[in-house]
Design a protein that fits this description.
Layout lengths: L1 H20 L19 H7 L13 E11 L4 E10 L7 E5 L2 E8 L2 E2 L2 E3 L8 E5 L8 E8 L6 E4 L11 E4 L19 E9 L5 E4 L12 E11 L5 E4 L2 E4 L4 E5 L1 H10 L3 H12 L7 E5 L8 E2 L4 E4 L12 H8 L7 E3 L5 H20 L1 H25 L21 H18 L1 H14 L3 E3 L1 H11 L2 H7 L1 H6 L13 H14 L8 H4 L4 H4 L4 H13 L4 H11 L7 H11 L9 H14 L3 H12 L3 H14 L5 H13 L2
Parallel strand pairs: 1-11, 16-17, 17-19, 20-21
Antiparallel strand pairs: 1-2, 2-8, 3-7, 4-5, 4-8, 6-7, 9-10, 10-14, 11-13, 12-14, 15-16, 18-19
The chain binds ligand BES and zinc ion.
């Protein structure tokens, strides 16, 4: 009965949001009034209704004491989560759980009255603790994770670089924290935490908290996170790890085989932190360290506070892919400090972060460099938009409605690149000085708080005049589909040269005897090309309709098929896997593709590669299926999910 009441309450708020607070999408952006301040508390609460958590505002948590033992043999975590309740609360508290085996629930040390709600494939089940009194303080949940812990990826020693010890990492964003900790798994609830974690002797354990730099002989580690964070930023990593300091407040952890290369690649981190602070105010998290994960990590990076998790695929030796660090560091403000209220507001996390990332890159590497990144972001957006407008136009709206869907569906170029370009247009409209003062003030005002789109627009309305609001077409940008025509068009000096080189290649007849020289921009030009120029070049060939002959010629000139840079290899294979070009040696080519897909799990790389193969003939499709069958077990559940759907749509 109690449970029904809270669900009805949630449904009411959800409909209130729809009726009262969402400006209708309008094609006439000139007529939209800037939004007034939301005074009504019921309406304000409605904006924060989270469709991806069972927990309710009736009782929230403020602190976690987590005591855990990591069992690598059984691949289980045995733990007790002791949650402190907020001082005022109702008579029940609801936690999210998924695939957890609950052993015991105590309310202030006494056996609690509790039950599981109905199980949902996506959301798991609510764990409801009843009979709270106003004086109730703590709920302690003892549990074990199971095979269904989608957040946890376990690696036997054989799959690590050093092959000496097993390895583990977690990935909680967006709604997977509940698979390894019973929690109020919504970005709108923040808590501080302390943890005590036992791992096998000889191993180092790390969390999104204060971290050790040395191994403890007994494998027992203590952590504290004094700043309140949402559950999706809970993170744990453990393995044979070593630490190298990069500066006063930054350093890198990796397996011993990798840690020196990582320290070299990320050598600019301290400078990035300084520049970021100069732009948008103090870094509130104490240290900024990084943990390099195995190549199956599904993302480029994950902004776990104090300890960013990173793919090793950016360690390419020439420092060219460090915008990833700028991105994850920027999340220390946009995301970790001011957090998206629900996953429908995900663009507030990612669009802001891409914007901030570009500003850091501009400061550290100069505008010519950051202009390339902006142009690539624009290309990504155009590429994804075309597809989405055809198949799912609603998905091109910044403010999403992901109720009933996996928040992972919202992880696309809209949140990142449309979000970024919208903010860039705002900057251009008001000028950098006003814009920067506004953003800095915004981070300060809302630090350690949550933000929803509507509230951000109210802040923006304080900055923009009605004329500016209309000129931008704010409502159209935020609630409209597609990309408004006033999207700033990126210009890049360095890409201008690349685009000329692409034209040179495409206007060359590959069969001409002197083709190799004709299409080749001189070495003085390409000598200084970064990864980004090569990406633009490969994409340019693809977009310009390169033939198999052109690809062969490009490969002969630049050796793409054998590049040691995973970013280039992935772009290259994504381009050629849908053609009949099979590399300079088909056997080597096939082996390289297979090895790459078996080793690397970064979704941004492998999804386009499989997509490309699935566009080929039946033989190519069959090849894709065979590789996926072999590779699937080594991919993270998030990558598996995306790829299962991709293969199902090509069945
Ligand atoms: N927080 C994201 C990764 C993420 C998003 C995980 C949604 C789970 C759900 C991270 O900051 C990110 O954006 N990573 C990008 C980096 C890139 C844009 C520089 C990635 O992994 O590709
Ligand atoms: Zn991000």
């Amino acid at each position: 009965m109690k449970r029904i009441k809270s669900l009805v309450f949630a449904a009411f708020l959800a409909s209130a949001t729809l009726i009262c607070c969402q400006p209708a999408t309008t094609t006439d952006s000139q007529s939209a009034e800037r939004p007034p301040m939301i005074g009504d508390t019921t309406l304000r609460a409605a904006l924060f209704v989270d469709p991806h958590s069972f927990s309710t505002p009736e009782a929230t948590v403020t602190h976690l004491e987590w005591d855990a033992k990591v069992d690598f043999e059984a691949q289980e975590i045995h733990a007790t989560a002791v949650w402190t309740l907020s001082e005022t609360h109702g008579d029940q508290v609801v936690f999210d759980t998924k695939a957890l085996e609950i052993k015991e629930v105590l309310l202030d040390g006494q056996e609690a009255q509790w039950s599981f709600g109905k199980e949902d494939d996506l959301l798991g089940s609510a764990l409801v603790v009843y009979d709270l009194s106003p004086a109730s303080k703590q709920v302690a949940i003892t549990y074990t994770t199971t095979e269904g812990a989608e957040a946890v990826q376990w690696f036997p020693a054989a799959l690590t670089q050093g092959k000496r010890m097993p390895f583990l990492f977690t990935q909680s964003q967006a709604i997977l924290a509940r698979t390894w900790i019973p929690c109020q798994d919504r970005p709108g609830v923040r808590f501080t935490y302390n943890a005590s974690v036992q791992v096998p002797e000889g191993m180092l354990a790390l969390m999104s908290a204060s971290n050790p730099t040395q191994k403890a002989a007994d494998g027992k580690y203590e952590f504290t996170m004094p700043q309140p964070i949402p559950s999706y930023l809970m993170a744990l990593g453990a393995g044979d790890l070593e630490f190298i300091a990069l500066g006063e407040r930054s350093g890198v952890y990796a397996e011993p085989e990798m840690v020196r290369n990582a320290a070299f690649e990320f050598g600019q981190t301290e400078k990035m932190i300084e520049k970021a602070e100069e732009l948008y105010g103090p870094y509130y998290w104490g240290r900024y360290d990084m943990l390099v994960l195995p190549p199956s990590f599904p993302f480029g990076g994950m902004e776990n506070p104090r300890l960013t998790f990173l793919t090793p695929t950016v360690i390419v030796g020439d420092l060219s892919l460090v915008s990833l660090i700028a991105h994850e560091l920027a999340h220390s403000w946009s995301g970790n400090l001011v957090t998206n209220g629900t996953w429908n507001d995900f663009w507030l996390n990612e669009g802001f972060t891409v914007y901030f990332e570009m500003r850091i890159m501009e400061r550290v590497y100069g505008p010519d460099f950051s202009d390339m990144l902006v142009a690539l972001s624009y290309d990504d957006l155009q590429k994804e938009l075309a597809d989405m407008l055809e198949n799912d136009p609603e998905a091109t709206i910044l403010k999403q409605n992901l109720a009933g869907k996996n928040p992972d569906d919202g992880v696309n170029a809209i949140a990142y690149d449309k979000g970024f370009h919208f903010l860039k247009l705002c900057e251009q409209t008001v000028g950098r000085d006003s814009w920067d003062a506004f953003i800095k003030g915004y981070f300060e005002k809302y630090r350690f708080k949550t933000m929803v789109t509507e509230q951000f627009l109210q802040e923006l309305a304080q900055l923009l005049t009605q004329d500016q609001w209309d000129a931008i077409g704010v409502d159209q940008w935020v609630y409209g589909k597609g990309l408004p025509v006033n999207c700033p068009f990126p210009a890049s000096n360095r890409f201008f040269i690349v685009d000329e080189a692409v034209k040179m290649m495409l206007s060359t007849a590959p069969e001409a005897t002197d083709a190799k020289q004709l299409c080749y921009p001189d070495f003085q030009t390409t000598k200084f090309w970064s990864t980004h120029e090569w990406l633009r070049y490969i994409r340019g060939l693809e977009a310009g309709g390169a033939t198999v002959g052109h690809y062969a010629l490009a490969d002969e000139n630049y050796g793409f098929s054998g590049s040691p840079n995973p970013e280039i290899v992935a772009a290259w294979f994504s381009a050629i896997l849908k053609t009949n070009y099979e590399g300079y040696d088909p056997a080597i080519y096939a082996k390289t593709v297979e090895e790459f897909l078996l080793k690397v799990g970064r979704r941004k790389f492998i999804v386009p590669m499989y997509e490309s193969m699935l566009q080929g003939d039946e033989k190519r499709k069959q090849w894709a299926r065979e590789i996926y069958e072999k590779a699937r077990p080594s991919y993270h559940p998030l990558s598996q999910g995306t790829l299962d759907a991709l293969f199902a749509s090509h069945a």
